[in-house]
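In this section we turn from sequence analysis to structure. A common task in structural bioinformatics is to predict how a protein folds when a small molecule is present, because the ligand can shape the pocket around it. The inputs are simple: the amino acid sequence and a SMILES string for the ligand, here zinc ion. Study the lines below before reading on.
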Amino acid sequence: MPELPEVETVRRTLYPRVVGRRIERVEVLTRRQIYYPDADTFVAELEGATFTDIGRRGKYLLFSLGPALLVAHLRMSGHLYVTEPGRPRTKHLHVVFHLDDGMELRYDDQRKFGGFHLLGPDRQGIPPGLANLGPEPLSDEFTPEALAAGLAGRRTPVKAALLNQALVAGLGNIYADEALFCARIHPARQAASLAPDEVVRLHGCIRRVLTAAVEKRGTTFSLYRDGEGNEGDMYDELQVFDRTGQPCPICATPIVKVVVAQRGTHFCPRCQPAPEGVALKPRRARPGRRGNSVRVAAEPPERKPGARGLGAPLARS
Ligand SMILES: [Zn+2]
């Protein structure tokens, strides 16, 4: 699932192609990807409107069209990108915004969990997840004190707390694992059990990991592409996520994968010591899955312009 760095990268790549453009026509090919209001009203309200800004909160993209706000959430596999109208349509294409410069803003979604809410000035119909978002982790609002307050009293594993969007916005499975490794905190530790210095460390690590990932334009783990159809470069920088069985970059102990908070969770059993009384059964590594071949390559694959565009296969080659 795209997390904060991926959604931010989509925002940045769409911005120059979308802001200032008027929507001439909207095609809704899959009505259930429009969550609010109904698809007919959605189309009627948007046709003729002009994009004035693109913002982001957590994993939500926020397209301003004057007073109206078009909210997009990509969920598991949503993909928003601008393309020429001549590009063949995928079978997962659900919504097309025809722009006044002849280009198309397209929404593809293989798993169909993502979609749109269109809000008026009263913001009626706002998705509860957006209304209840916690602080933006790269903003001044997110302080060590704010994180400490969010973790206080929680008996859930700290990993589950970090995935809770009401506590801090935008973290998902990849960057929660990376931040906990950076902070040397076991993911199954009870959230409330963290000492003050651990909370300060975790706060710094969340910001550091997310900042690096935004700079690298996100992680392409399976389906994620930015608004121009390109992959992110963060995958090769990940320290523990999807690195099961590989040596820890700090101490060379093999990285372990377990289930915490119903999610596959990667950590170093030496750098991130287990809390007392917690025994976690490791998951077996599945070699050859997803990006493994890229990691063992002696040199990174050459990137020719256009070679990694929209026509690229979905799996990493
Ligand atoms: Zn280690």
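Residues 196-215 form the longest helix (20 residues). As an exercise, try to locate the residues that line the zinc ion site and compare them with your own expectations.
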